[in-house]
Amino acid sequence: MEAIMSVGDDVAAIKNRLDFLLSMTDAVICSGGLGPTSDDITTAAIAEAFALPLYTDENVLSLLKTFSPNSICWVENNAKQAVFPRELRFYLTPEARRRALPFFINGKMIFVIPGVPAEAKLMVVNVLFPPCADISRRMNCISSNKPLGPSGFPKPPLMKE
To answer: 11-138 in CATH: which number?
Structure first.
């Protein structure tokens, strides 16, 4: 690990830190800023950092509106969670409540995951580990006599069979 940084809710600051980190390493993990509130600006900052236009995915928007539990009133700001940088694939849980942006650009890996710990854990296991494990296998970086988990990494002690 080369560096850990905390960045405020400022598009220019996020872009500057990304530029700095990507000059030092081949992979960056960003967490937080994917929600519907006004300070959740990571998606916009990523789009701006890589000059990618944003678009609203109408299928995701429809899923979000459909899934909104009766106890939660739909507010238009929730539509922000259906906005993605064009040309980037995204990972969405089946109920469309959690999302991540795992992508490669200019030969670098960038993973944008939720900041909520339980959601981040879900995305790390399902989104971040698989491509990292694949790359590690190809580079013969994993050597362990421990059983491998579904991610391709050694199973942590608490992982259920």
So the answer is: 3.40.980.10
